[in-house]
Design brief:
- The chain is an alpha/beta fold and 315 residues long.
- 50% of the residues lie in helices and 10% in strands.
- The strands form two sheets. The protein has a six-stranded parallel β-sheet, with helices on both faces. Strands 7-8-9 form a three-stranded mixed β-sheet, covered by helices on one side.
- The protein starts with a strand and ends in a 29-residue tail after the last helix.
- The chain binds nicotinamide-adenine-dinucleotide (NAD) and prephenic acid.
- It is an enzyme of class 1 (oxidoreductase).
Length: 315
């Protein structure tokens, strides 16, 4: 099976990028969309993020065989309720939320009579809103599907084919495992970035303008991550609480060990850890998998470096 009409709910970075990527890679598939914010709908029309933008959520999804919810994870249930009256009985509902267990539960509760296959394209930037999307966002990136045990194989295959068509490499995972893995590879790194930038800013009387002046190095990378959308990330930490807390426990134990090494002048412990982490990075590069992109090193990837090389989001 393939999809002939896809409706996108939430037309920010993720929703807009899906719409633009569909226009490029799936020109024969009809696209429609809706966003709760009228100003976003207006801007999405101007940019042509999807072919049709309805002012009514039920209207936007009418006739769609795939609906993708691209709203913050805390707004998934509300968005699902809004589109419910317009959903065809055989429409597949999916999402792009950064955490999966909570979203799956919320969607199953909101739409008990619909097939739901949650998904997470592990691709994004610190930008958000209808101007942020670009068509190559998913190129050479993972998209993780977390189908429930009772999901129809044909629907899982169709959703996987949709994401592959947009340039992603698809992996299937248990939702609980997804949430643990992403807690350590994405959620805690964001928490660390938010915290270190906040700490530096709180120390402003010590650092004065030096936070900005000397932020050309590693700290600059943290400020990019710490510029990510506050609503999105608040929701991620509220909805992936248990996995984040479990992984934070491990992280703080390791940080305590390094604190002790510094206090006790244990250079060997520091050197051992830094050598191990350097070997990990070099191993990734040797495998041609920089940034763990699925097929990085094939030669046709974009060499994004922080925000400098971001493709200009233009329609
Ligand atoms: N930003 C990233 O790097 C990234 C990467 C992968 C997945 N995600 C996930 O994708 C989802 C969307 O993130 P984004 O970065 O596109 O955010 P965004 O802020 O750019 O866009 C979200 C859009 O949803 C709209 N919205 C909010 N509540 C709504 C509702 N109830 N009904 C309809 N529209 C509503 C907002 O008006 C906004 O336009 C989130 O669940 C996030 O966790 C984000
Ligand atoms: O590249 C970035 O700026 C991102 O934060 C992208 C990123 C990530 O942590 O890798 C952020 C959240 C997502 O759910 C998926 C991707």
């Amino acid at each position: 099976m393939t999809f002939s009409r896809v409706a996108i709910v939430g037309l920010g970075l993720l929703g807009g990028s899906i719409g633009l990527a569909m226009r490029e890679h799936l020109p024969g598939v009809a696209s429609a969309g809706w966003d709760a914010d009228p100003a976003v709908r207006e801007r999405a029309r101007e940019r042509g993020l999807v072919a049709t933008i309805a002012d009514d959520p039920a209207e936007a999804v009418r006739g769609a065989d795939l609906v993708i919810l691209c709203v913050p994870v805390g707004a998934m249930a509300q968005a699902a309720h809004a589109v419910a009256p317009g959903l065809s009985p055989d429409c597949l509902v999916s999402d792009v939320g950064s955490s999966k267990q909570g979203v799956a539960g919320a969607l199953e509760q909101a739409l008990p009579n619909h097939a739901i296959i949650p998904a997470h394209p592990v691709a994004g930037t610190e930008q958000s809103g209808p101007d942020a999307g670009f068509s190559s966002l998913f190129h050479h990136r993972w998209c993780i599907l977390t189908p429930p045990a009772h999901a129809e194989a044909a629907q899982v295959d169709a959703l996987a084919a949709f994401w592959r068509a947009l340039g992603a490499t698809v992996e299937v995972m248990e939702p609980a495992h997804h949430d643990l893995v992403l807690a350590v590879t994405s959620h805690i790194p964001h928490l660390i970035a938010y915290t270190i930038v906040g700490t530096a800013s709180d120390l402003e009387e010590v650092t004065r303008s030096e936070v900005i002046k000397y932020s050309a190095g590693g700290f600059r990378d943290f400020t990019r991550i710490a510029a990510s959308d506050p609503t999105m990330w608040r929701d991620v930490f509220l909805h992936n609480r248990d996995a984040v807390l479990a992984m934070l426990g491990r992280f703080t134990a390791d940080l305590d060990a390094m604190t002790s090494a510094i206090r006790e002048g244990d250079g060997q412990a520091m050197h051992d850890l830094f050598s191990r982490t350097r070997a990990i990075r070099r191993g990734i590069l040797a495998m041609g998998q920089d940034d763990a992109r699925p097929d990085f090193g094939r030669g046709d990837h974009d060499e994004r470096q922080g925000d400098e090389a971001e493709p200009p989001p233009q329609s």
